[in-house]
Every structure is written in structure tokens, then in C-alpha cells.
Amino acid sequence: ADDMYLFGNNEAELETMFAIMSEEIHTLGLTCKRESLKLLDSTSAVQEVRKSVWKTTVGNFTIDLVPHFVALGIQIDRAGSTETALKHRTKCFMTSWFGVSKAFCDRRVPLRFRIQRFYATLGRSLLVGAGGWSLTTAILAKIDKLESMVLKQMLNRHKPECEDWRSYHTRINGILRGALETAGIMPLSLQACHLFYGWAGHVSRVADSSPVK
Questions:
Q1: Which of 49, 52, 67, 156 could bridge 44 with an S-S bond, Cβ 3.0-4.6 Å?
Q2: In which element (H, E) is residue 196 found?
Q3: Cβ(64)–Cβ(51) under 8 Å?
Q4: Three-class SS of 92-114
Q5: Cα(35)–Cα(70) distance, rounded to whole angstroms?
Q6: Cα Rg, the chain, nearest whole Å
Q7: What is the secondary structure of 128-150 as a DSSP string?
């Protein structure tokens, strides 16, 4: 991994590797996007230099060195950073939220129904790939903050003039906790923990010969 290229520095070997990959994908009856065939550059600072000295084509695909790319909805950088992955998932989440927030914030629909629908759709989309994240306190706090912001918009309650902000947030948070408990839904940060330990358990059970292990 410390070589000039992620998978080695022999261009012929790289071409062979991607030719085999393309054949396997075709055999399975699958297709791949052009932008999916990319190699990770070790640093973005030297990206242009390396592009000028290394570039290969397999069939109709041109493979470039990039600082990061998206695969199966997950943004991956050289370090496999959870920050990078969460930032991308948050961007996708917010884009979807702005498109459907009007429906989710409609108080004519029961709050419990809207909450259940939210966690079954957008909530799951935010946690795509969370099984492989490094769940630090800071990462969980970011998830909680995003979730709280959206839930408060869904509740759609304004602060009375006679109430201070601290009391207002305490009251609203209590209403939302009660709504989640009534709907039997875990907060997104806890769901992320379940996904993490679920994936860890899966990896621990696979055969020792598996590349995943």
C-alpha cells in the first residue's frame, strides 16, 4: 500500500487485474459504471502528477487515480475515513430531506406515522455502510444532532413568547423521546451501533480463508 500505486507499480499487472474484474462482472450478468473503475491516490496533492505518468484503459473504461470515490453509495478515501463516509451520507440525506420535508412536516398526518415512515426510509439511507464506520463519540454526536434537527422540524411546534429557549428545547425533546418510544424506534446513533456490531459479528463468523476475515 506504500508503493506508488495502491495495487502495485506494474501497469501490465493492473491492466490484467481489471480485465479479470470486467470478465467476472460480465459473467455474473452485472454492469458497472465508468466512474466506479478508479484507483485511490495516496494523497490528493500529487494526484495530477500521477495522472500524467499513469493511466490505463481496459476496453471502453479509462481508469484514473483519484483521492476518493463513491462505491455502492459509500464515499471512500485512502484512509477509509468515517468522517468522509458520514459527510457524503449526510449530503445525500439532506438532499432527499429537502425534497420531501413538506410531506414529513405536515401536521395533518399523525406524528407517529410520519416518524415511522422517516426511519424506514431516510433514516436507513443515512446509515448506509455504517457497519464499517469507526463509531467515536464525535461521530455519534453528529448523527444525534442531525436526527434532532429533522425531528424538530417534523414536530413543527413554535416556541411560545412566555417560554425561554431552555425550557422549550427540554419540552420538545421530551415529546420526541416519547414519540420514539411509542413507535418502538431506536435513535439513529443506536441503530448505527447495532449495524457496527452486527457486521463485526458477521466477520468473526466467516471462514478463515475468506478475504473478508
A1: 67
A2: helix 188-205
A3: yes
A4: HHHHHHHHHHHHHCCCCCCHHHH
A5: 9
A6: 22
A7: TTGGGS---HHHHHHHHHHHHHH
**CA dihedral for 57, 58, 59, 64, sign (positive or negative):** negative
> At residue 48, does pLDDT exceed 60?
no
Residue among 183, 48, 164 at smallest CA distance from 111: 183
Is pLDDT above 60 for 3?
no
DSSP conformation letters of 34-87: GGGSEEE-S-GGGHHHHHHH--EEETTEEEEEESEEEETTEEEETT--HHHHHH
pTM: 0.70
pLDDT of residue 130: 92
For residue 111, give the C-alpha cell: 406524528
- What's the CA gap between 151 and 54, in Å, rounded? 48
- Computed over every residue of the chain, the mean pLDDT equals 80
The model's pLDDT over 69-113, given as tens digits with 9 standing for 90+, comes to 888 788 888 788 999 999 999 999 999 999 999 999 998 988 889
Among 32, 30, 25, CA closest to 61: 32
Cell digits for 5?
Answer: 500505486
Question: For residue range 161-183, what is the model confidence (pLDDT) as tens digits?
Answer: 888 888 888 888 888 888 888 88
